[in-house]
Batch of 2 targets.
Target 1
Amino acid sequence: GQNIDQPTEMTATEGAIVQINCTYQTSGFNGLFWYQQHAGEAPTFLSYNVLDGLEEKGRFSSFLSRSKGYSYLLLKELQMKDSASYLCAVMDSNYQLIWGAGTKLIIKP
Amino acid sequence: IAGITQAPTSQILAAGRRMTLRCTQDMRHNAMYWYRQDLGLGLRLIHYSNTAGTTGKGEVPDGYSVSRANTDDFPLTLASAVPSQTSVYFCASSIGVENTGELFFGEGSRLTVL
């Protein structure tokens, strides 16, 4: 079966750095996506990786290793507004998105 | 610019009743999707439409139906609601099949079936 694993919850301190990991087992691979979802709101697109390596976008970076079935989302200079759930999703060989359950990130002052 | 509009925002429904969740987008996106989100689970695809006039089944289609008469509208119907359909429903769109990873979501419809 297809599976996306990510930690259920993480806690970090304002101003610090946090890394949210995602491992996947899917039927084929056509890209990995990270979304941010604030409580009670819709998910919003953060990043996309299809080749191995690091993609940087401001305070957020996303890394992919296809051979290891592994990705992480790195958040730097954490702000209170970064408190949210972060969803990892993989597009399989049928171009369908398979979603992880999400990681709830709690930022403490 | 509205993006994707869903209605209703929230609804309590008696089991056995019929319910239609409405979804309208103004971005002229070809592809549209309906997901449900339940605590502890990832988003699960119910139905999708790659272009107006076509629909397809997702991971959890049973008990739901959709139609895509035009580009903008993609309603989701529960023919006879059951308590297990209590969930938050998200409508989403993408530019096209080639860009199905970057989705734009509506604000969600919270449905409670009693």
Target 2
Amino acid sequence: GENVGLHLPTLSVQEGDNSIINCAYSNSASDYFIWYKQESGKGPQFIIDIRSNMDKRQGQRVTVLLNKTVKHLSLQIAATQPGDSAVYFCAENGLTGGTSYGKLTFGQGTILTVHP
Amino acid sequence: GAGVSQSPRYKVAKRGQDVALRCDPISGHVSLFWYQQALGQGPEFLTYFQNEAQLDKSGLPSDRFFAERPEGSVSTLKIQRTQQEDSAVYLCASSWETGGAFFGSPLHFGNGTRLTVT
């Protein structure tokens, strides 16, 4: 659901389950999307990125899906582990206002908790 | 070598004091960004440098915020006359591309400086 301020969306899973984290983006002109993982007290850590001319991209245990029709991005994590517990952010490089460089705009984030 | 390095990790300032936050980007990275992250929120853009040129400062909240990167490597974010609303984590990020964040050239973030204004 939609949350404001400290009430981030949350997802709780059991270790070994697959996780799906969703993100809606706003700018149809964005041509690049990226997922970051942020653990407490640390900066965002790059997970995987995708270009707008792709529908899907796979990494190690992670898959990003892009649906431009409905402006939706998802991150799938296979065989989720306790070490995957963190806040996950999607970001887009909205090229608005004549911006000619990749300036990332972040979503609100989703808290993933993995139970052993 | 190492990733993006930021210092100090924590800074407590009394309202009205000036603070300076330092960022050492990954060696050779051309693009450098500063972001502000409030508690429970995603990072929000402050400013962008390409080498020593500040190409975009549209995200700086007020004229109390000033950033520089005089030699195209280390950057400093300065906040004058700090206010309580300035309390946040300030993140620095860099990428090797001249054009900022693009496919194949993601932003790499430091661990941030947590600023608390009392």
